[in-house]
Input
Amino acid sequence: MRTQVAIIGAGPAGLTLGRLLEAAGIDAVVIERRSADYVLGRIRAGVLEQSSVDLLRQMGVNQRMDAEGIFHDGVELSFNGDMLRINFQELIGRRVMVYGQTEVTRDLMDARAASGAKSIYEASNVQIYDFDGETPRITFDKDGQSHQIECDFIAGCDGFHGVSRASVPEKAISLFERIYPFGWLGVLVDQPPVAEELIYAHHERGFALCSMRSHSRSRYYVQVGSSEKVQDWSDDRFWDELRARLNPEIAESLKSGPSIEKSIAPLRSFVAEPVRFGRLFLTGDAAHIVPPTGAKGLNMAIHDVAELATALSEFYGERSSAGIDTYSARVLENTWRTERFSWWMTQLLHTFPDGGDFGRRIQRADFDYLGASRIAQQSLAENYTGFRP
Ligand code: RFL
Ligand code: PHB
Output
């Protein structure tokens, strides 16, 4: 088989890139290790920046998003029960949309199926070759047979544990990483959200987040130690812990219920440099990881592939490699800006085992500064809604 761009991974990065290339008349195949149902079963992000919403609209996959997505003008912060609302709309004239990653993925998969674009699910043992030359190749196994795809470019959209970044020679890549000594235990529940907007809560017992997927489905998280096991968290234990970390009035109005999904995600900050290696490009979680506190991972993935699609369109349309040559620098600029913001939100809101009294006083001072300074609030608003200089 031959294609112009082989896309490894059918997460948001791979599927968005596939759609953008399709619109540009560039042939692409998506190769995914898991089944489509497995990909759709992963509960992940919930917040879209305006620029992501705009891109999904531009790609014509907005029908359900426009009907079901919920615009939020701001978020609430809570610090040991003291509340502070950050009103993005009023501060900087922008807002965000609550629409689950699962839904974005489903919309993109449906659009791909409708247009007949080629996707190969349940492809095992994917290997990539010759991306330092002009004719890269991919091999994989499916239904007991081995297959090969020849292509012009490989888009590594295969997440943090994928094969793309792992195939780059060690000396060609620099990795920057911070692993946090905690994770997020998340619960999905069919109950109306406790508040109209998201609540990010710092508490001595640990961070908590009240989020949502719709007016009748809520998503909640609590910070847990890195060694915690999900089976040790009954629903009752989860709800008790969440309530203990919220402002008492809010805790009182929280509607709990049987969890329909419960999982623990570790928190890390991670950046690979560069993100282009000859004819291989890394995008999304394959290139960088942020802790979920800033709601950025999905939006970064969409940003990267928009840059890549523009670069590839220039290559095929105008025979110019200028976009390809600057892809890495453009992605890394956005990456580090967003890494900083996600790190900052994380260190403000979480309880650090080694933070000590000094660390706790600094966190309180940071929160009080936000409460007192419109400029500090604008900075948060600008970054949370997506800063594009
Ligand atoms: P994905 O979604 O991991 O998709 C990669 C795909 O590649 C496949 N794959 C392979 N395929 C073939 N061969 C191989 N060798 C392969 N190895 C892997 C995988 O099966 C998978 O289908 O990466 P992508 O597309 O870069 O998308 C990134 C986002 O998924 C991620 O950044 C976000 O979910 C992060 N995130 C959030 N981002 C936001 O923008 N807003 C949020 O509110 C938000 N909340 C979150 C989050 C992530 C979380 N977790 C679980 C880490 C909340 C949580 C709890
Ligand atoms: C979510 O709804 O899953 C969510 C929302 C905001 C975040 C992280 C996760 O910062």
